[in-house]
Amino acid sequence: MNISALKEILTGQPNYRQQQVEKALYGDQIEDWSQVIALPEELRRRLAEACPLEIRADDTISGGDSRKALIVLEDGLKIEAVLMMHQGDRNTVCVSSQVGCPMKCAFCATGRLGLKRSLTADEIVEQVLYFARQLKKEHKRVTNVVFMGMGEPMINYDNVMTAIRTLNNPKGFNLGARRISVSTSGIPDGIRKFAREGLEVNLALSLHAPNNELRCKIMPVSTHHSLESVMEALAEYVQLTNRKIMFEYIMIKGVTDGPEQAHELVKLLSGWLGYVNLINYNQTDVFESSTRERIEAFKKILEDGHITVVQRYTFGEDIDGACGQLAARKEIKLD
Ligand code: SF4
């Protein structure tokens, strides 16, 4: 799919054409311009020539409650997007914001790939459209979008925000802002900017360690932006938005999942407007997964410390498509 020529083609057309096109693309999720009978035939022909709508996906794997797509971009690079189907008609698409990622988190296979480039806003939305078109045929729809795939959204800030506004547009895709979540590894300037967007989009911090020393070991971003500076930016975010923060915490055996870390986490997060999401780590050759017993013990310490905890089932584990580890185990090639 490539709609970069759309603006040029619509130049000189009446204003309502733009709205018709947006509704067709994002609201009706058309796959072919011939489906938009509201547009003049000549315009449809030009659009079909210059703005192909086919989304090329190299490989789609279905496994239980998840589907993974390896989407091929115009320049041949590939990105992964995952659809997670929950009970009760909730269908969440986990999107990538970059091809690869420069943040080099030690537990994340995507980090090991390095950064190829950031995605355009259209390429981000394309991932959602890919699954939206599939679900439409099954009389279902995408109900949630999370920026938890490849890449750090805050360093592709403008394109991520443009994609969010496209998805949120009531005359287009019409996905409520509260149904969109952005996860960051902790870029204070980005968090401050995000706090001032005036959108009710959810914010998650990939925390993964209760102190800066441990965090530096598994998340090099902490050597540039200390945990303290990230928490200061988050405090500003909460003050301005009065919105809860989701603190994502990965359970790696012997590294992040001990009782000492749990007690430290209670100390760090006491009094915060937010909750902790404990994430099972999908074992790789670098780290081991925590055990059920260790996770339960960790959770109990948090709950005894009056911290709200949710535990995310690692969707997509069976297809190597769990968020943050999209390229895990079966190494994917981005080009
Ligand atoms: S966990 Fe997220 S921020 Fe860290 S390397 Fe992986 S994709 Fe990048």
TrEMBL record:
Cofactor: how and how many bound: Binds 1 [4Fe-4S] cluster. The cluster is coordinated with 3 cysteines and an exchangeable S-adenosyl-L-methionine.
SUPFAM superfamilies in the record: Radical SAM enzymes (SSF102114)
Residues noted as binding [4Fe-4S] cluster in the record, renumbered to the chain: C101, C105, C108
UniProt binding sites for S-adenosyl-L-methionine: G151, E152, S183, S206, L207, H208, N282
Domain of life: Bacteria
Name of the top EC class for this enzyme: transferase
Main location: cytoplasm
Cofactor: [4Fe-4S] cluster
Chemical reaction(s) catalysed: adenosine(2503) in 23S rRNA + 2 reduced [2Fe-2S]-[ferredoxin] + 2 S-adenosyl-L-methionine = 2-methyladenosine(2503) in 23S rRNA + 5'-deoxyadenosine + L-methionine + 2 oxidized [2Fe-2S]-[ferredoxin] + S-adenosyl-L-homocysteine; adenosine(37) in tRNA + 2 reduced [2Fe-2S]-[ferredoxin] + 2 S-adenosyl-L-methionine = 2-methyladenosine(37) in tRNA + 5'-deoxyadenosine + L-methionine + 2 oxidized [2Fe-2S]-[ferredoxin] + S-adenosyl-L-homocysteine
GO cellular component terms given for this protein: cytoplasm
Domain Radical SAM core, chain residue ranges per copy: 87-318
Keyword annotations of the record: 4Fe-4S, Cytoplasm, Disulfide bond, Iron, Iron-sulfur, Metal-binding, Methyltransferase, rRNA processing, S-adenosyl-L-methionine, Transferase, tRNA processing
Active-site residues from the entry: E80, C323
EC number of the protein: 2.1.1.192
Location(s), subcellular: Cytoplasm
GO molecular function: 4 iron, 4 sulfur cluster binding; metal ion binding; rRNA (adenine(2503)-C2-)-methyltransferase activity; rRNA binding; tRNA (adenine(37)-C2)-methyltransferase activity; tRNA binding
Gene3D superfamilies according to UniProt: 1.10.150.530, Aldolase class I (3.20.20.70)
Family: Belongs to the radical SAM superfamily. RlmN family.
Other notes: Reaction proceeds by a ping-pong mechanism involving intermediate methylation of a conserved cysteine residue.
NCBIfam families: rRNA_mod_RlmN (TIGR00048)
Role of this protein: Specifically methylates position 2 of adenine 2503 in 23S rRNA and position 2 of adenine 37 in tRNAs.
Protein name: Probable dual-specificity RNA methyltransferase RlmN
Source organism of this protein record: Candidatus Wolfebacteria bacterium GW2011_GWA2_47_9b
Upper lineage: Bacteria, Candidatus Wolfeibacteriota
